[in-house]
């Protein structure tokens, strides 16, 4: 987290520092990113940087946290637009989020972020903790999703549904980033197709209906 000195800066200076950090973490993966480049882009002395953050990891985690909050806010807006319809909301959210992650001006930044994560142990890694840091989003979802038409009543069931959907999303992204090269590179359309399959299976099941064979 940033130090109080950073939080007392005018908003424009905070934004300039974080924009410089995003440029640098887009240029290089975390291990190769440079504080020197960040402060040069931001136009601040090295001493000032350490008045704002402990180290490179500190500003990186804060960048992930603030960026993650924007995703959470976007999800809330989509849920409200769909009046709590879970599957309609997550369908739209994944569609716009996949475009943002993979096709926006920030696509290289997100690629570098995922390059630092182990998808088998993301929830236990330092990078995973930054990306999956709890927010008020979970409680918001429980209160604003319409569960009337779902076979879900308890909090553990609701949380399992959220984890299943978001876990499938993370795995699909991981597969994408690991299969960008080769004879059949994974595409944005492939990511969206996998998410459509997952949501369809959750909604309608994977068993064929009896009348399908009639």
Automatic annotation (TrEMBL):
<feature type="domain" description="HTH tetR-type">
    <location>
        <begin position="11"/>
        <end position="71"/>
    </location>
</feature>
<dbReference type="Pfam" id="PF00440">
    <property type="entry name" value="TetR_N"/>
</dbReference>
<dbReference type="InterPro" id="IPR001647">
    <property type="entry name" value="HTH_TetR"/>
</dbReference>
<dbReference type="GO" id="GO:0003677">
    <property type="term" value="F:DNA binding"/>
</dbReference>
<keyword id="KW-0805">Transcription regulation</keyword>
<protein>
    <submittedName>
        <fullName>Transcriptional regulator</fullName>
    </submittedName>
</protein>
<keyword id="KW-0238">DNA-binding</keyword>
<feature type="DNA-binding region" description="H-T-H motif">
    <location>
        <begin position="34"/>
        <end position="53"/>
    </location>
</feature>
<keyword id="KW-0804">Transcription</keyword>
<dbReference type="InterPro" id="IPR009057">
    <property type="entry name" value="Homeodomain-like_sf"/>
</dbReference>
<dbReference type="Pfam" id="PF17924">
    <property type="entry name" value="TetR_C_19"/>
</dbReference>
């Amino acid at each position: 987290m940033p130090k109080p000195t950073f939080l007392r800066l005018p908003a424009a200076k905070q934004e300039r520092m974080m924009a410089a950090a995003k440029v640098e973490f887009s240029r290089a993966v975390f291990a190769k990113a440079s504080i020197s480049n960040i402060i040069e882009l931001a136009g601040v002395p090295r001493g000032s940087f350490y008045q704002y953050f402990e180290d490179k990891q500190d500003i990186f985690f804060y960048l992930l946290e603030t960026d993650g909050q924007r995703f959470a806010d976007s999800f809330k807006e989509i849920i409200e637009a769909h009046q709590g319809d879970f599957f309609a909301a997550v369908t739209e959210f994944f569609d716009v989020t996949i475009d943002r992650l993979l096709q926006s001006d920030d696509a290289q930044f997100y690629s570098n972020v995922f390059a630092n994560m182990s998808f088998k142990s993301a929830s236990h890694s330092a990078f995973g903790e930054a990306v999956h840091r709890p927010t008020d989003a979970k409680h918001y979802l429980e209160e604003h999703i319409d569960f009337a038409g779902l076979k879900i009543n308890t909090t553990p069931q609701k949380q399992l549904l959220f984890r299943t959907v978001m876990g499938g999303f993370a795995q699909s992204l991981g597969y994408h980033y690991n299969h960008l090269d080769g004879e059949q590179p994974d595409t944005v359309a492939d990511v969206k197709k996998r998410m459509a399959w997952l949501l369809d299976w959750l909604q309608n099941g994977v068993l064929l209906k009896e009348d399908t064979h009639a």
